[in-house]
Amino acid sequence: xxxxxxxxxxxxxxxxxxxxxxxxxxxxxxxxxxxxxxxxxxxxxxxxxxxxxxxxxxxxxxxxxxxxxx
Length: 70
Description:
The protein is built from 4 helices and no strands. By secondary structure, it is mainly α.
């Protein structure tokens, strides 16, 4: 991507645990923000581990892994 000065600019989104929890819970503002992104965001490994740690059963672990799989 080029900015106004014609220089190359990179955009990268990192998603934290709070945002992922909002997306899991289908919180409308989080879903709208996620849908507005031009590219998939990066999810740090520690965020995935926090989501897995919060899971109550194997089904929830599977849902987390499906959500973050690209």
